[in-house]
Specification:
This protein is α/β, with parallel strands linked by helices. Helices cover about 40% and strands about 10% of the residues. It has 14 helices and 9 strands. The protein has a 5-stranded parallel beta sheet with strand order 2-5-1-6-7, with helices on both faces. Strands 3-4 form a two-stranded antiparallel sheet. A hairpin with a 2-residue loop joins strand 3 and strand 4. The longest helix is centred in the C-terminal third of the chain and has 20 residues. It starts with about 25 loop residues before the first strand and ends in a 6-residue tail after the last helix.
Length: about 325
Amino acid sequence: MNKIVPHPDETPVRFDAGPGTRRGPDFIIGGAPKCGTTSLHFILDQHPAISLPQDEVHFFDADDPIAHPDFLSVQGGALQWWDPRPGAQANQDWYAGRFPRPAPGGLVGEDSTTYLMSELAARRIAAQLPDARLVFMLRHPVQRAYSQYWHLIKTSRAAESFETAILRYPHILLGSGYAAGLQRFISALGRDRVHVCLFEDFRADIQGCVDGVTHFLGADPMRVDPERAWFNRTRYPARPALHRMANRIGRHLVRGRYRQHMGGSATLARRVENKLHYWWFAHVSPRFMTAGRPPPMAAATQAYLEQHLSARNAGLSTLLDRDLPSIWPGMRC
């Protein structure tokens, strides 16, 4: 990682959309993870007037040690971190360089699913992208947390049981605490610049959900091809305990890969690390992921999460003007 010395200048830097210059995003898919955001990205990327980077960007919360612990490190006793503030010009250039040039009159977007849980992203986005619109997809909070756990297992980033993981990785539960994050974005940007689609609505009516998003963005409607509408069909480990044991090794191989998100020098160690990462996910991890669904959650764990995540999402039904308990069984929010 190339360390950028923190700069005290917080003056907002706004992207210029003039001829020959890069531009920042017109919209952001800001969360939450494991709620269908990858599929929405995949669909919108088929729109002739919408351009998106291939991968999630994770810029405005890149200095968050909870959402992105692998982006930070300690080298020689010094904390190394990625500064997303306006004064760090090299990092601002990195961010601007993520975006493809749109067609004339087209829109540019990005997909960073951890912004919803960030305490800082809403304010930073409002300052730097004053006209941007935010799209959020939400899912039954307990099911979303469980799905994220299995994603951590799949990507070899966790080697614990679900119960231990929710204690060790706070972002599993923070990612399902939607109410506070939505309120931050509404306060920073205004209600008219925030759009919410429920995963359950998306599953039941993909076309209707996408129509709502394109209308919100001011883009022409698009016909969703059912054969090109679902990107991220998840497989689960057939032998979870054995997979968790393997991940005690695999987690060391993948950690450095996530630190490379913002680039850096191509050292010999990094090239070896990349080859090990490729080998692990090409030849080892897929051997475990052969089941079509995860094992059921323990009843006591589910009961705890229903009450805890209901409390975290108090007032969400009113905020969204939806009867969420009728859509999310077990939730009281």
